[in-house]
Amino acid sequence: MELFIQQIINGISIGSIYALIALGYTMVYGIIKLINFAHGDILMIGAYVGLYCVLLFKLPLIPSIIIAMILCALLGVVTEKVAYRPLRNAPRIAVLITAIGVSFLLEYIMVYFFKANSRTYPTDFFSFGSANIAGITIPIDKMVVAGITIALMILVQIIIKKTKLGKSIRAVSSDRDAAQLMGISVDRAISFTFIIGSALAGVAGVMYGAMFTINPLMGIQPGIKAFVAAVFGGIGSIPGAILGGLLLGIIETLVSAYFSSSIKDAVAFAILIIILVVRPSGLLGKNVKEKV
Amino acid sequence: MKAKKLITLLLVAVFVLVAFAGCAGSSSYKEPEKIVIGCNYELSGAVAQYGQMTMAGIQLAVDEINAAGGINGKQVQLVKVDNKSDNNESKTVATRLATQDKVLAILGPATSGATKATITVSDQYKVPVITCSGTADDVTVSNGKVNAYVFRTCFNDSFQGNVMANFVYNDLKLKKAVVLSDNSNDYSMGLAATFKTVFTKAGGTIAAEENFTAGDKDFSAILTKIKAKDYDVIYLPSYYEEAGLIIKQARAMGINVPICGGDGFDDSKLNEIAGDKNLNNVFFSGHYSSQDTTKVVVDFNKMYKEKTGETPNAFNALGYDLAKFVLQGVKTAGKYTSDDVAKALMNVKDFQGVTGTFTLDANHNPVKSAVVIEFKNGVQKFRARVNP
User: Fold this and answer.
1) Structural domain tally of chain A?
2) Closest Cα of chain A to B37: distance in Å?
3) Which domain holds residue A178?
């Protein structure tokens, strides 16, 4: 039983990183129906920003995360303005291809300037030892990851539900033309969505990088996993992304723990397919009829 | 038009003549004035470090031999070519060495892949290819057949598993092992398989076996799982990236048992990823350690330092041994042809090198000792020399 609880904690820890990234996917999809394939690379940029905050300025965790959030948010807005906004009325496939292009662009610019080698954060940057609660050893770094994620999710929920900007995002998501007629600035709402999503990816990048190793292509794998998590929970739904991310992390961990780590991805994706067959709009997705 | 035809004819005539001349040359054997040895190394590109370090060792050995009067009174000349760390290029330059430079033997390349690319060249021109760091089992034996002209002077991958199993059982006196291997990597699977066979045969038990895949980063699920098992040592044959992360995560979880691996640990990146404070009670098998206290090693270190001002590393030592071993073969071959040199290599008995004393076995692999290196606070310390 202790072992099981420990494995669940392992799952929540990696799952909360997926959830942070998945939020960005789902919000962007919700507002402009774009699968932003460059999102994983924003995470990578965040990881590098964090690394240089530590190496050059010896900053501790929280300031590094904040700087990574700011720079990633900027990058998110710039990519939206430069690459996606001019294509707003183009066919959806054109924007999708552009997103893939932005992804490669970011990856190989980083390969050119920072080399393809793996880098690591200093080992003492993100190690907090472990606590013993009721006979269960809990690594504190995992709790920190989960804690930061939960705090950020509550913040996002408040922004979306309680603020004027949040309201405008929701309005544009549900009907762009009607929102525009009501005097809501569509451009601002979309920019703001990119700011939130990219800042979250920046946080995830610093934590992911500090726990593991970083390189310019590191964003691909967590990016795809998070995209799956977003679809799993119901793309476009914020609580869905959180649920999807956590579930994906837990499923992966339990499969590695009780079967074999070689088939963890196979099992996770098989479950995804089954869920999508039963509920095509994902766990918490709304079943919206296509407008004719 | 006519001129063109004439030129073509002339060219053909020249080619035919050259071809005949070539035949004449090989049928009536003439003793060469110099001993020409080819070096096909990674002097630039991704693994240039390996090639350059090996080359430095070879050069030192050849300088030493030439200063002492050469081989049977003949000076040794090295023809160095750069394969740019590219397998195709390796084949091209090996062909050049065999056909244009007519070398007696080709030393290198450093990596298994680049060496395998030259197997066909060695067969076609009957010129021996000898690597001193290509450890993959199928360099010398492919599809169950020994490659007639390919040899190596380092132990192969499956031998490393053997060394570690004996070291863990006899030296560390630990009997219950967990084996963690990368199932997307032949090197890792090969080492793990030999370790399991030898360790259980010696009387040890395998408490658990887990696999991961190259590129995995979060190992907490498998580590949590094995933590609950009854075991006293972890065998982790893997490259430094995954090994570094596993060591770091295991130590953070409070898994403090010895962790053992192969020569993939021998890279400063391991220190960077795992962190020096986590690199305690970590062992790996390697080819050579400059801290070895055997007399040949101490003498070699002293000589190397005098000549170059640096402490030799494993590649320097392997290159040095390679050149000496091959030239020993040339010395006793009788005739100075590449075919005879290849045959002579198998007759060099008990060659005393810096990286161990060895004779090649029927599979063209040396039977030689390995060293075990221990990490203490991230610093490599020579621990033991293990004989096969």
Assistant:
1) 1
2) 35
3) 15-218
